[in-house]
Design brief:
This protein is of the alpha/beta class and about 220 residues long. It has two domains: about 70 residues, no CATH class; about 100 residues, no CATH class. Helices cover about 30% and strands about 20% of the residues. It is built from seven helices and eight strands; from the N terminus they run αβββααααβαββαββ. A hairpin with a 2-residue loop joins strand 7 and strand 8. Helix 5 crosses helix 6. The chain is globular. The relative contact order is 0.11.
Length: about 220
């Protein structure tokens, strides 16, 4: 558990302010949350610390607020795919990951399950090293991106999710860096990703076990 979380918990306890400590006790790859990852949640819905990405944090926050209201601890299991596979036994989903297609089909059928956010840290490190102050950053992993922008000291970068209505590839006064993840290709961002890959060349490709999992594109600022 991080020292700042412990210190905050001690201070809130001394003040008599209610809070919840949530800790990851088990995780399955490629989850970004790891065992011992901890967050402190207060009654106003503020979450400090790290539990995982956009899949885990909203559920943990919701259940933490319920725990505060009821005054009871709880154990959450966020493993619906694994539970579904057990329930379907012995007819497991053998087509998931490389099992159904061999080495030639790694990260092909279900990249979201197999590679997910692999390579995202390296992509953000590259952007942090080269992006001018206040540059825009397109992505579809808000929780992980916020974590690494803090880690690399680049909270000045203005993030916008590729799947959101606010995202656009239109020229802007500030350069745009776009992170394209093989494990985060959705119907909502397909149009932008196709346009991006047709008009620009990546400035970085991150490979994991020979598979390109993440690309970084740079869209110059207007007038450049």
């Amino acid at each position: 558990m991080r020292q700042e979380i412990l210190e905050l918990a001690a201070r809130l306890s001394a003040e008599g302010t209610p809070f919840v400590l949530a800790t990851v006790v088990w995780s399955r790859a490629p989850s970004s949350g790891k065992p011992s990852s901890t967050a402190l949640i207060t009654a106003d819905g503020t979450l400090r610390g790290w539990l995982g990405g956009a899949c885990a944090e909203p559920v943990a926050l919701r259940e933490a607020l319920r725990a505060l209201q009821e005054g009871t601890p709880r154990l959450l299991f966020l493993g619906t795919p694994a539970w579904a596979a057990v329930q379907a036994s012995p007819y497991y989903s053998l087509y998931v990951n490389r099992l159904g297609g061999g080495e030639a089909k790694r990260a092909y059928y279900f990249p979201h399950d197999e590679v997910y956010d692999a390579g995202l840290r390296e992509a953000i490190a590259e952007i942090a090293a080269r992006a001018p102050w206040g540059s825009r950053l397109g992505h579809d992993a808000p929780g992980v991106v916020r974590f690494y922008l803090r880690r690399f000291g680049r909270e000045d970068l203005v993030g916008v999710e590729l799947s959101s209505p606010e995202f656009a590839l239109a020229p802007n006064a500030r350069p745009l860096y776009v992170i394209v993840q093989k494990g985060r290709r959705y119907f909502e961002n397909q149009r932008w990703l196709d346009t991006l890959e047709r008009r620009f060349r990546p400035i970085l490709e991150v490979r994991v076990a020979g598979v390109v999992t993440t690309k970084v594109y740079e869209v110059p600022a207007r007038g450049m």
